[in-house]
Amino acid sequence: MNYAILRTAKLKTMGNIGSSLAHSYRTIETPNADPNLTPKNHHTVATPEAVKQAIENRLPEKRRSDAVLCIEYLLTASPEWEGWGTNKETDFFKQASLWLMNKHGAENIAGMSIHRDISTPQLVAYVVPIDQKGKLNCKDFLGGRVKLNQMQTDFANTVADLGLTRGKEGSKAKHTNIKEYYHDINHARDFSITTVAPKPEMFESKARYGEKVSAAVIEQIEPTVKAANSILMDYEKARLDKNVAEESYNTLRKRVEPYLMAINGLNQEEIARVNEVMRLEIRKIAIERVRYERARYVSK
């Protein structure tokens, strides 16, 4: 069964928005993306700065301090869908874009990006949640499980003609928002990464020690997550490549045995979630590394 996949995230600050845009426009290191394919990505707005400006232009002057400024949508389909790389892929993104415009109004969509440099193509959209009264009202679109379920069903129906269906309602798979979808992989299965914080030196300032801890955590986690993601991508390519030698395939299969055991018994949507979770961890690490490097530069 091939599923239509929709995730959302609530962005409450311009900082949140900027971090997400940096990933979408590949202005920060994106280890799970193939740089050779990045030129095939498509953006409706030329730069991330222009998207931020479009968001700011749509925001009402009067709003709550904790208001959601932007909804980040992620629209994609099962990795196994036969439509990838065909005319169906073009139709999928066209129908997904129109669905967003009909739902929110084209004037409230600050920008959309189609990523084709990752293993499963996806559309990411940045939408200012203005309701019919002209107010900033994220709750009107995402409030409550019932509305989220209805939205999942509505989107799936929109692309049903492409051979895609909605995931099973009530499934244990968490499929209501990007935070859950992108959650740490150890919440999907019993897999964890442990880190050891360095000991503080005598008379070391809190700020300096904080920088040292951040650097240590990044250094310890990054190789593990990068290696896991690299092996997963190699295995997927080998599985789909009919010309790969049987011996090479079996060798690679042994390397990914822990991953195969982790996804045993999960449905395709749950597997897709685990895969994207791994990619998110790499994204978060890349963002933290940039923040750390900037902080270290400023401290100098």
Task: Describe this entry's structure for a reader.
- By secondary structure, the protein is α+β, with helices and mostly antiparallel strands.
- The chain contains ten helices and five strands, in the order E-H-E-H-E-H-E-E-H-H-H-H-H-H-H.
- The chain is globular.
Q: Any descriptors?
A:
5 strands, 300 residues, 10% strand, five-stranded antiparallel sheet, alpha+beta, globular
Reconstruct the topology from this structure.
Layout: E1 4-11, H1 14-24, E2 42-43, H2 48-58, E3 70-77, H3 87-104, E4 109-115, E5 122-127, H4 139-142, H5 144-158, H6 178-181, H7 206-240, H8 246-255, H9 257-263, H10 268-299
Antiparallel strand pairs: 1-3, 2-4, 3-5, 4-5
Summarize the structure.
This protein is α+β, with helices and mostly antiparallel strands and 300 residues long. It has helices spanning 14-24, 48-58, 87-104, 139-142, 144-158, 178-181, 206-240, 246-255, 257-263, 268-299, and strands spanning 4-11, 42-43, 70-77, 109-115, 122-127.
